[in-house]
Amino acid sequence: MRFPGYLTYGMLLLTGLTWAEYRGWSLSRVNQVKDVPKTVRDNPGAYRSHYGFYPRYVGGK
Amino acid sequence: MASPLVAPPVAKTKALSCPNCGGPVELRGFGHALTVVCQQCLSVLDVSTPEVKILQQIQEKQRITPKIPLGTRGKFAGVAWDVIGFQRRTIHEDDETFSWDEYLLFNPYKGFRYVTEYNGHWNFVTPLESQPTRFAIAGRPAVAFEGRRFKHFDGVEAITTFVLGEFPWRVKGGENAICDDFIDPPTVLSSETTQHEVAWSRGEYTPGADIWKAFALPGNPPPAQGVYLNQPAPAKGGSMWGTFGMFLLGLIVLAILFATASRQSVVLDKRFRFSTADAEPSIVTPVFNLEGHTAALELTVDANMSNNWAYFNFALINDDTGTAFDFGREVSYYSGSDSDGTWSEGGTKETVYIPSVPPGHYYLRIEPEMDAATGPYRVQNKRTNAMDYHVVLKHDVPNYSFFWIVAGLLMIPPLFHGIRSGGFETKRWMDSDYPPVTTRGGD
Asked: Would you say residue A24 lies in a domain?
């Protein structure tokens, strides 16, 4: 075993990747909100997204 | 009858008197010595005949104290060696002087060996009985020996500037020889060419600590300075790239495994129409079920728009627990033509990964936005924009972005090693006849 440090580093990365993939981790920004009322299904307008708005591109060339 | 358990012979000493100073001169070389240098007065004596003659007188001011005292016994690979001679060799290059030291070792069974030292770098040197084969690598001289190829490093004229002890050849200060070094670290093959002969030897780089241990010398060896010609590189980039290749293969196997093992089940596939004239822009989808383990969801929204944008506020709401995952995506697509030709920017489709969604019953709330002022329609005398959009939601999907990140992270150590190794080799060859970088003012 010529590079034990690198082997350990690589194995840790692959193990971490396997776990991240299995659990469905993602780099996407998603806000989690608790206790959304059941009434949202009947009145969708009553809920306002807690997600911050992206800066919007409205241009063209 | 001699016992088979007799101890091996040791180098016995024979004493002479120096004809110059009368001091004792010890001979340890079992009669091999042709020249001895008196340690008291530095007279170089010819001891090849019973009549000891003075060949040369070395000045006292030239005296050098060897780091390994003459007469010291050391062990290398289980063989005992006596230090019987010492000489300093010097070269002159570009108004600079470089010197290295050579210690002559003797064992009555094995013969002679050498230990050399330059700036704290040591080599254990064995004379060769056969000559290496000369050839060329990329136009540069090289030699082949015992299946290995050695590149020419340098060729210098070395002058013996100081001698002490005994030698199996006629040695004296001021003698010169052409020395050529060929390297395949940690080995160096050296040739010494004089008027009468060409002698080859093989040196193995030996850390100073090993020399100190072998000769049981007090204290610590002098620290090694710079990079020596056959010093082994601290890192070999090629080997680490091999390990990187194995990891890359592992990554590919993992990617294939997740691509085939992930369910990627479509839990929602619906088309909607949105108009800025709608009283309530937000809608909710029917409840769908996510089964299995906590996994990522992939949401794709495809809107039929041109030269326009739309923003989608999404909330994936767990109908059982009331937990919502809020996120948004913009879809914008612009195209046209100008003097440069046709162009387009953006796209009508966007994908977002929702991480770590536990199993349960969910529905999706969608609230689109568009700029009504640019709309082609009029409702109640107001401009209106509208679009059709298609939402697909897949459960338990692989996310390959992590694979690229891990591949990048895995590449860092081999890159670092490669750069370090390259820097080491550059330093090594800077002192050769083939410097990879020429300094300003140099040739």
From this structure: yes
The tally of domains found in chain A comes to 1
Residue A12 domain boundaries: 4-39
Q: For residue range B340-388, what is the model confidence (pLDDT) as tens digits? A: 899 999 999 999 999 999 999 999 999 999 887 776 666 666 777 889 9
Kindly report, residue by residue over B150-204, the tens digit of the pLDDT.
Answer: 999 999 999 999 888 888 877 777 888 999 999 999 999 999 998 888 999 999 9
Interface test with B, best of A43, A47, A53 (most B CBs within 10 A): A47
> What pLDDT does B77 receive?
85
Length of chain B, in residues: 443
Tell me the CATH number for domain B263-397: 2.60.120.380
Residue B8 clears pLDDT 60, i.e. is over it = no
Q: Is A61 on the interface with B (CB under 8 A)?
A: yes
* B258·A30 Cβ contact <8 A: no
Taking CA–CA distances from B343, the nearest residue in chain A reads A61
Strand partners, B67: none
B144 to chain A nearest CA, in Å? 27
Partners of A36 on chain B (C-beta within 8 Å) are 315, 317, 322-324
- Reported pTM: 0.60
Query: How far, in Å, CA of B359 to CA of B356, rounded?
Result: 10
Top residue of A25, A35, A43 to mutate, by most chain B CBs within 10 Å, is A25
> Is any Cβ of chain A less than 8 angstroms from the Cβ of B9?
no
User: Long-range pairs for A3-12 at CB < 8 Å and ≥24 separation?
Assistant: A3/B239, A3/B240, A3/B243, A3/B413, A5/B413, A6/B240, A6/B243, A6/B413, A6/B414, A7/B243, A9/B413, A10/B243, A10/B244, A10/B247, A10/B410
- Answer whether residue A26 is part of any domain: yes
Window from A36-45, B250-259, B387-396 with minimum mean pLDDT:
A36-45
Beta carbons within 8 Å of B334's beta carbon, 6+ residues apart: A59, A60, A61, B306, B307, B308, B344, B345, B346
Q: What are B67-103's pLDDT values in tens digits?
A: 999 889 999 889 999 999 999 999 988 788 999 999 9
Q: Does B352 touch chain A (CB under 8 A)?
A: yes
- A6 contact residues in B (CB cutoff 8 A): 240, 243, 413-414
pLDDT attached to residue B240: 84
B297 touches chain A (CB under 8 A): yes
Query: Which residues does chain B have within 8 Å of residue A12's beta carbon, measured at their own beta carbons?
Result: none
Q: Cα-flanking dihedrals φ and ψ of residue B31, to 5°?
A: 80, 5
Q: State whether residue A55 sits within 8 Å of chain B by CB.
A: no
pLDDT in tens, A22-61: 988 888 778 888 888 888 888 888 887 765 544 455 554 5
Contact B327 A29 (CB under 8 A): yes
Are the Cβ atoms of A51 and B328 closer than 8 angstroms? yes
For residue B5 the two structure tokens come to: 């358990």
The domain ranges of chain B are: 14-214, 263-397
